[in-house]
Amino acid sequence: MADSRIFGSMREYMTKVHHSAHRRIAWPLLMLVLLSWLASCSGSKKVNYRNGRYYSARDMARIKAAERNRRGRAPIAKSKTRATTASGTAKIVTKRRSTPLNASREMVTVIETARSYQGTPYKYGGTTRLGMDCSGLLCAAFAAIEVPIPRSSNEQAAWGEQVKPQDLKVGDLLFFGASPGSNSITHVGLVTEATPEGVQFIHSSSSLGVIENSLETDYYLSRFIKAVRPPL
Q: Is 18 among the catalytic positions?
């Protein structure tokens, strides 16, 4: 019985020693993890400190974008357009676009207004976001700077001075026929970008609605008739 009590006491003592050893090991590990977590939080906050103030990641992105703009970079925007894949299915394509720096403030407003209608379905005779045709898009865009323009594409083709394709600038109007080689104007678009790499224009397509396209595609080059510079 005495031996049993002795062994019982020894087992109890060894159990306490075992638990104590675990606590001695666990506490430093726990403190190390806690200190590492606090250090990481502190480090992430320091990254977003500016002039003694903490900013969220979103605010920091806005601040950096504003700094880039002040250094003279063109602001970048995104637009979503519909495109057709090789299999014939439609998909949404996000395209980065820049506000033209070589255009007047009035023309920038016209282009931004036209772009605000992207995705609007085509509707013959339409001039609203419920639906609009190609010449109606231009009427709505120029209305943003209170400049009334002729309503039809044929009349718009006579509004301004004709320019050569190699001299195209942002804000020029492009006129197209219904079929390759046609001389009868049935469609109009507004140049949104004109660089040595190519020309982009916005228009209301009868199949895709208001969308931006490249003039250099075979489809539009084969139907191109003339270009006009608005008298602004």
A: no
